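thought: fold this chain, then report.
action: predict
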Amino acid sequence: ELVRWASGNPALQTDFLIRLAQGELLHKKFEQEPQGRGPIIICRDESGSMEGSKHALAVAIEWALAEACRREGRGFTSICFSGPGQMREWTMPDHYDPEQLIAHLSVFYGEGTEPEQAIKRALDIATEKQNQGPDILILTDGYHTPLSSDLLNRIRNAKTHLGLRIYVVVISDTGNVDTARDYADSIYRASTGIPDLFSKII
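observation:
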């Protein structure tokens, strides 16, 4: 099954993600992980450097996770960001309409990279849902400036008091992981780490 993911073929990778999210792939590691965890809050990078195949892959990952949350009755919020002031948010409603998610995924800013606004909003949502054990997942190629010390302090406090976990998926084998080391609990390369990530949050 992992050959599909490692193939680099977008169609096979999307098929793999959807089947993994739907629980159709058999793997002892996945079977041993507890299911039905808390809400997932995604921050997805839509800067110009994410254009093309990286954007398509990030959207496929987000789509698969949204499907997993829908199936398990978990909360799901997506926050997309690019340059200053460029941010939009979508939360899965109780009566899920796939067209709403498609519309949200179809917009692409394609400009600068300012992740702080999105991460701050994700922390706000995580605080609101603290009793549900939320996780934050950031999808990016890593090409952005380091986070401010104020935001890093807020992240550390959230991890201490809320039990928050932050995962980062770097959507490129050549993407920059250095900026994520300051705040991420786990960092994954999209080309190799998705099965392991999904085993932890699905």
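thought: worth noting. The first helix runs from residue 2 to 6.
final: tokens above.
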